[in-house]
Amino acid sequence: MYPKVVIGQSNEWSYAGWRMRSISHAEVIKDRILLLRDQRVMLDRDLAALYGVPTRHLNQQVKRNRKRFPGDFMFQLIAREADDVRVRVLGQEGSWRGKLPYVFTEQGAGMLAAVLRSPTAAAVAIQILRAFKTLRRDEEPSESVQFDRRHSLFAAIRDAVLCCPDDKPFTTEIPCTYFLQAGSDGPIKIGSTRNLVVRLRTLGAMSPIPLRLLGVMKGDHEEDCHVRLGAFRLRGEWFAPSETVKEFVRSNAITPSAGT
């Protein structure tokens, strides 16, 4: 459960002292980040406290600027989710006061700075985004490095075994970054290779689900793509098939539709 908070006469949090500590210490913000629907999110009331506005005002501004908050920026909890979060956040006796709360992803939390007229909005947004970034780095399991090393070794062996002599002409000096989707609505893999033909064939041979190529970028931009889309990472090189990720591919890669 969260640290105890004081309820003021306006039925909002008495957040002044906590908010100043939050702005100074990303650790406090990190404690308010939840994992829901495989996404890291923050409650509307927590963000309102950080931005220094009432929760009602925050949600009103979001409704007035709804186009700025698509489904991968914010969503409202269903009753079961809200009850689970209530116990974790407010305790067994806590209450949402009859309204299901909204939660905001990293992008939505940052977008709030653009719609809230708060003197500290920009500074708060920076601290929130830093907290999300730090959390991603801190929550990388210690075994991930070993996993990546094993994965790289496995990839090298895999390509060596499945590579045919006729594939050598397709090996290029300049690598490319590729975007593959598992099925029609599955996760999206972002990787790089110097031989796309071999990589597509070997990945396809290993996957129980058909893979389709969404797009290709010239050069090795894998790490940069992973950083920019880090909020949507599921594991390793696989990312959630959100509209934001798809739009990134359409805007930055050569897609099959663009080549026709």
Please summarize the sheet with the most strands: 5 strands, antiparallel
Mean pLDDT: 77
The stretches of 5 or more residues where confidence is low (pLDDT under 50) are 1-24, 142-147
Give the overall shape: elongated
Category from helices, strands and their pairing: alpha+beta
The share of residues in extended strands comes to 15-25%
Please, how many domains?
Answer: 2
Taking all Cα atoms into account, the compactness measure Rg is 22 Å
From the N-terminal CA to the C-terminal CA, the straight-line distance is: 55 Å
Q: Would you report the number of β strands?
A: 9
Please estimate the helix content.
Answer: 40-55%
Strand order of the largest sheet: 7-5-6-9-8
Q: What is the H/E order? A: HHEEHHEHEHHHEEHEHEEH
- The number of distinct helices, counting runs of at least 4 residues, comes to 11
Please tell me about this protein's structure:
- The chain is 46% helix and 16% strand.
- The chain has a five-stranded antiparallel beta sheet, with helices on both faces.
- The N terminus is likely disordered.
- It folds into two domains: 123 residues, no CATH class; 110 residues, no CATH class.
- The protein is an alpha+beta fold.
- It has eleven helices and nine strands.
- The N and C termini lie far apart (55 Å).
List keywords for this structure.
260 residues; alpha+beta; 2 domains; five-stranded antiparallel sheet; four-stranded antiparallel sheet; 11 helices; 9 strands; elongated; disordered N terminus
Topology of helices and strands:
Elements lengths: L15 H9 L1 H5 L2 E4 L2 E5 H8 L3 H10 L9 E3 L2 H11 L12 E3 L1 H10 L5 H18 L4 H20 L13 E7 L5 E6 L2 H11 L4 E8 L3 H7 L4 E3 L2 E2 L3 H10 L8
Antiparallel strand pairs: 1-2, 2-4, 3-4, 5-6, 5-7, 6-9, 8-9
Helix pairs in contact: 3-4, 6-7
